[in-house]
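User: Can you help me understand a structure? I only have the sequence.
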Amino acid sequence: MTAQKLVCSSMKVTITNDVGRVIMPCPGCGETIVRSARARKLAIKYKCEKCGFTGPN
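Assistant: Let's start by predicting it. Here is the structure, written out as tokens:
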């Protein structure tokens, strides 16, 4: 089994075993968005590479 390499959509850093991370579909197009616990805590914006949707606000 191959481990999936997760990269935070906000901070562009590789995350592994990050308690509090989230993997969710983009509200705009359904593409996978990955956010680290730190990016979520600091409310750092993310941008979907596929459709350009930005969040969290």
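Now, to help you interpret it: Strands lie at 6-7, 14-15, 22-25, 32-35, 46-47, 54-55. The longest helix spans residues 37-41. Let me know which part you'd like to focus on.
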